[in-house]
Write a structure and sequence with these properties.
Elements lengths: L12 E5 L3 H16 L3 E5 L21 E3 L9 E5 L4 E4 L9 E8 L5 E8 L7 H16 L4 E7 L6 H11 L22 E5 L6 H9 L3 H4 L4 H19 L2 E5 L10 H19 L3 H34 L5 H12 L37 H5 L4 E2 L2 E2 L5 E4 L2 E4 L5 H25 L1 H20 L16 H19 L36 H4 L2 H15 L8 H10 L1
Parallel strand pairs: 1-2, 7-8
Antiparallel strand pairs: 2-4, 3-4, 5-6, 6-7, 9-10, 11-12, 13-14
Helix pairs in contact: 2-3, 7-8, 13-15, 13-16
GO molecular function: catalytic activity
GO biological process, one term: larval heart development
Pfam family, one: Exo_endo_phos
Length: 562
Amino acid sequence: MVRPERPSHTLKILSANVRGLRTDIGDLTHNCVLRHSTDVVVVTETWLNNEVEPTFGKIRGYTQQTRRDRPERAGGGVAVCFKEGVQAQHLDVVPPPHMEMMFFRVVLADRSATLVCAMYRPPRQGPSSLQYLTGALDDLMLEHRCRHVLVVGDLNHHLEQHVYESLQTVQVLTDHVTFPTHIDIGVARDEATSRTVWLWDKADWAFLRHDLSHTAWGTLLPDGADNMSRALTSRLLALQRRHVPLRDYTTKPTDQPWYGYRCRVAAEAKYAEWLRYKRNPTRRNKDLHRAACRRMVVSSKWAIQKLEDDLPRKLRSPGVGNKTWWSLVKEKQGISHQDSIPPLTKQDGTGAVTFAPEKTQAMVVSRSLAAGPAVAGRLRFGGVPLPLQEAVKVLGVEVDRELKFDGHIKHIAKKASHRVSTLRRVASFLDRGGRLDSIQRRALRLVDAADLPDPLTQIEPVSPLDSLEYRRDVAALVVFHKAQVQGVAWLAELREPPRIATRSTRTVLTSGDAVEVPRSRARQHQRTFVGRVSKMWNIFTAAVPHIHEMNTQSVKLAANRC
């Protein structure tokens, strides 16, 4: 049976966020690239630098990787390679230094060219990379004569959704990744274990030395080395339990490897301060809670640093094999081959999830006023009675016991009223168009006054300059012509349906190019772009014939004559 060949006018693209190419090059090559016979391989977060040779990661049957590494900081990086036979050219495009992207021109079998952008945007970089693509893709496609464009990589666009949607709208792009690509789950590393923590910094050393000095060692230690060592050990352990405080510490399966006893103590102290601040929200309790948060951060950083310092010692030990070494490397990267969702129930069938009664909200949903007192005091959670509330918050929305949102709407309206009242005070300073109009009118008065030959002349001067408002109207008609007649893609939202044919009168002229004017009594809506320009467009089409045969320059000239 002959395997049918895939059409050569298509591309099979692989995009992978490997978080360390040196450790995952084998998995990427055999399980992804060679198995699926991809044409283009885009790898993000390679974590490579200038010390890695350019020939690293060369895949048989593919070109050498074109890389863009981070020159100064660790992490990040983009690498791209193509299957041998694919006509690809690396474009000499120099983006800003902090942006990790590369551009390629790929020619298909039908001689059409596609612009491929390989990109990685760190989560904390901001919208600058997406804004750069929005303005640069058109110029690159025109310069290199590309018909299509592909943006491949890890953009982390969920953190800049508004800018990402603007990029899709302006460039008419379609997002083909409609499924989740990253899931955070708690990894059950080990079983829960308990150990005893001796608090040596709180030991009573004075009484310990007193007991050691008054011990009758001659009668305590019998004959024989083994008997003497056992007796000495028993005596020292007994004195340790008497004078050194201890605490039993139980690790949880979902704890991080660095999360130990000190972090647990700091977390419990932080939680206690939070409960105190919740019961009595004073300034002092707030400062105490902030101090506890800072101590928690310091303890976490100390524990993480200690774990990193102990890692080389583990790797240098003689009992470390290949499996242990790679497991430590994967754990360093935050990945584990034994990733699993922890069980939600215990062996006896009870739930493994614990709840905090003080964080639980209870409400009786009923229109009857007697329903609340009938249940009050009887509803318990973990043995703690839950107080009933008149309203609860669910995902930020306040719902009362009648399942109404009156209180929430009142709160939102009050907050919006405060913001609008504040905005009204500074609205005059934010109106840039009104400020420019006033400046132009003043300048025209000065120009007209300078052109008068005689100050006693009563002839009203005629200014050779058009007002800014008139120029804005002409520009609005040109933009509406692009959206309505030329059908520009990124102006599709401005298109209006054609007006239904009506009978012309002496006061109202109709045209086949007229559009429906949005009907509204709100003055704010009437001042919007579509509501204002649609009226001017109907007047313009009635006065200017053959509007479909005119280009942008002709429309601009005709609008200036009207």
